[in-house]
Every structure is written in structure tokens, then in C-alpha cells.
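Quick one, probably user error.
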């Protein structure tokens, strides 16, 4: 019979850190020592119950709290027509004509076909909010391992027909300096257009804004969209901060898994996009399935090694 005294099989799940921004699963110690005559177990510290409790607690903590603020019809009159209506799977018109930062007329469809696209709608003379949107986008892009112009494209379109290619070029230069990656100039496009093209595009993605004639500025919401290579709206992200993990998963999904890695597939198994929040949230049941599968794998390996080391019965 094999010697199963606690001695030299040390398998610990020391860290299972599952946060909205970080998926970290590390086996810190896997000490498996086999001798020719015995197989000894030293410490089998397998804290799956605690892991599942942490997973479940954090997943429920991500659930949005009930809304307690004023209803939409109680907003100030100037803001009632402002917002972003989700039009998932809506097609953006490829035949719309804009002008790029060089002043050249370009069809919107030029930037689609093979890669997913991040679309940001701003105006270049905006005194504050639009810069925050672009700053947040640039910060997230700086964290991604994907490169603008390589795995995906970025299109920034001004919804102010008064903006010019010169202002688009100045804005592009500013954000390329901030992004600091080679090849981005050919992948991040800053466009201007006339009222017809602007209104058709913004309507197709559900972006609602209004011009305030007294201030000469626009009232508008903040957010970005991820589109498929075929020009269909895949994901919305709201506000001015965009979690790099969520943005990466959205690009992987929009590309139909043409970009990304096996780790992305595991994350997409454990997370799903919630349209109500514009974020990826944990799927507790899938996490439990994944943990159970891992446990069965470990137990199967233990059983295999135990049988392998069992001495043969004497003839």
C-alpha cells in the first residue's frame, strides 16, 4: 500500500482575486514530489468553499443599487432631450461623407470591414466634457495590449458642424502624443461633417444632444460605442472612465473572437455585458462551474498518480 502520510504534496489555492477590473487566478505553490516507492501527501489545503463565497459576494456587490434619484421627466427642461438610447445591432450608414483631419472627403464605410471600431462622439471646441471623454478613452487605450490601427480602429466624430479639419488635426495631434504608440496615426481618425451626416450618424447610434444658442455650446451625454467590422453597434460604455478589461472584452466580442486570447475566452465565460449598466458583470453560476471543473481536474490528477505509484501485488 502507498504511504499517504502528510509530507510532500502541497497544493494550495492561495490567491483567488476576482475584481471587476482584475481577474487573477494563481496557483502559488504546487509542490509534487514522487519517490520510487511511496507517494506522500503533506498538505492538501483546498479552500474552494471560501473561494466560492468570495466570488458570490463580489458578484452580488456588483449589482446596481435601486435608483433613488429623480425620474427622467423631472430633469431640467434643457436636459430632457439629452441622452444615449441603446440601439444594439443598429447599422451605421456607410455612405455618409465626412472630412478627415487633412480635409479630404471620406466615406464612413472606409474605416470598416476587417476590424472592430470604437466610436466617440464629441465636439472639438467643447470646454470640458468632451475632453474628459477623450482623456478617459486615451487612458484605457494606453492600458490595452491591443494597438490602435492593428487590432481595431478608433473614429472620433465631431457633432458640431462648425468644427473644421484644422481643429480635428490639432485634436488628433494632441491625443497621439498622449497615446505614444507607433502606427496609431493610421488607426485613430478625427472627422468633421455637415449637419446631415452628423445627424444621421448620431441618430443611428442613439446619441441625443442639443445646441444652446445663448451659450453657443452643446448639451450632451458622455460615452463611447464599440462597433463590429460590419458597422453594427455591439456595446455602449457610459461616462468618462472606461474599464480596460471591459473595453478589451467588447473588442474581442465585436471581432467575433478574431482578436484576443484563451484568457479572454475564459473571462467571457465568466462575465457578460449588462446593457442596463454598460459594463461587464460576473456570472456566478459559470464561475462555480469553472471552479468545479478545476477541482475535478485536480482530483483526477491525484487519482492518476495514486494508481501509478500503487505497488503491484506479489505473484
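Nope, works fine. Designed sequence:
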Amino acid at each position: 500500500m502507498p504511504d499517504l502520510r502528510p509530507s510532500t504534496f502541497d497544493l494550495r489555492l492561495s490567491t483567488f482575486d476576482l475584481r471587476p477590473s482584475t481577474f487573477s487566478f494563481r496557483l502559488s505553490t504546487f509542490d509534487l514530489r514522487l519517490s520510487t516507492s511511496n507517494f506522500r501527501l503533506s498538505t492538501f489545503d483546498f479552500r474552494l468553499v471560501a473561494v466560492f463565497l468570495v466570488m458570490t459576494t463580489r458578484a452580488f456587490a456588483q449589482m446596481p443599487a435601486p435608483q433613488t434619484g429623480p425620474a427622467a421627466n423631472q430633469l431640467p427642461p434643457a436636459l430632457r432631450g439629452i441622452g444615449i438610447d441603446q440601439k444594439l445591432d443598429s447599422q451605421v450608414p456607410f455612405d455618409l461623407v465626412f472630412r478627415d483631419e487633412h480635409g479630404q472627403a471620406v466615406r464612413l464605410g472606409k474605416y470598416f470591414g476587417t476590424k472592430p471600431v470604437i466610436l466617440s462622439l464629441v465636439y472639438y471646441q467643447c470646454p470640458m466634457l468632451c475632453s474628459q471623454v477623450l482623456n478617459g478613452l486615451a487612458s484605457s487605450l494606453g492600458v490595452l495590449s491591443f494597438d490602435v490601427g492593428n487590432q481595431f480602429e478608433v473614429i472620433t466624430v465631431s457633432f458640431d458642424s462648425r468644427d473644421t479639419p484644422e481643429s480635428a488635426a490639432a485634436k488628433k495631434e494632441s491625443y497621439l502624443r498622449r497615446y505614444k504608440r507607433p502606427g496609431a496615426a493610421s488607426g485613430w481618425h478625427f472627422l468633421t461633417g455637415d449637419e446631415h451626416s452628423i445627424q444621421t450618424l448620431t441618430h443611428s447610434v442613439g446619441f441625443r444632444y442639443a445646441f444652446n444658442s445663448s451659450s453657443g455650446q452643446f448639451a450632451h451625454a458622455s460615452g463611447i460605442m464599440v462597433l463590429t467590422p460590419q458597422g453594427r453597434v455591439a456595446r455602449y460604455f457610459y461616462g468618462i472612465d472606461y474599464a480596460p478589461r471591459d473595453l478589451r472584452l467588447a473588442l474581442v466580442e465585436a471581432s467575433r473572437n478574431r482578436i484576443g486570447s484563451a484568457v479572454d475566452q475564459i473571462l467571457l465565460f465568466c462575465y457578460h455585458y449588462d446593457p442596463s449598466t454598460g459594463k461587464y458583470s460576473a456570472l456566478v453560476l459559470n464561475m462555480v462551474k469553472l471552479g468545479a471543473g478545476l477541482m475535478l481536474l485536480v482530483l483526477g490528477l491525484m487519482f492518476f498518480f495514486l494508481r501509478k505509484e500503487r505497488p503491484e501485488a506479489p505473484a
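The CA atoms of residues 21 and 145 lie 15 Å apart.
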